[in-house]
Amino acid sequence: MAALVILGFVWNANKKDLGPVSDTVLNENAALIVGEPAAPTTIDVFEDFLCPVCQQFEKQSGQPIIDAVNSGKLRVRYHMLTFLNSRSASGDYSERAAGALQCVGDAKDPALFFRFHTALFVDQPKENGDSDHSDAQLAQIATAQGAAPPTPQCIATGAKLAEAKQAAAQSRTQLEKAMETTAVGTPTVLLNGEPVNGITDGPGWLTAILTKETE
């Protein structure tokens, strides 16, 4: 069985027919959808808050994505996966961070969402490290980014943990369908249900799809 190593993860090179990607499911289980519904381009971004390559992706493409959203050119559906839980000190950091983002998303404030999302990657715990952020610390990060009191309270109590876990499972299923394999990794970007290439080589991938979609 052949395998291809991409972004530090092993992807099964043997394709499987897992059925079509459901745009409805992707739309319903995103942590937050940012951008105007009438934006000419919609992408799905799959990340794990413990993933170091996702941190690189955020450094390179985070601000260009924000700029494209703010200019009305792009709509983004964010999906937070949790398969790196076992590599966190607490054993559940990925899902707790995803739950925290769900709390922030409920505030319906895209600017806050982007600030918190970026802050978690800037202050990212190490894979297989000795510590990660507690729920109280995640709540403090949200407060520092301007969240109103109900949001950090939601984070501190883990109110959205079950919702985040369910969304992560559904998102991973859709990603497996898009890749036609159960061996998937992050970061991944889908455009019209298909993976976008070159997303860790800088923001050129975004310029390319925005140009193509508006031609």
From TrEMBL:
Gene3D superfamilies: Glutaredoxin. It comes from Gordonia oryzae. The keyword Oxidoreductase applies. CDD domains: DsbA_family. InterPro entries: Thioredoxin-like_fold, Thioredoxin-like_sf. Belongs to the thioredoxin family. DsbA subfamily. GO terms for molecular function: isomerase activity; oxidoreductase activity. It holds the Pfam family Thioredoxin_4. Residues 31-198 form the Thioredoxin-like fold domain. The lineage of its organism: Bacteria, Bacillati, Actinomycetota, Actinomycetes, Mycobacteriales. Coiled coil: none annotated. The keyword Electron transport does not apply. Keywords: Disulfide bond, Isomerase, Oxidoreductase, Redox-active center, Signal. This is Protein-disulfide isomerase. It comes from the Bacteria. Transmembrane segments: none annotated.
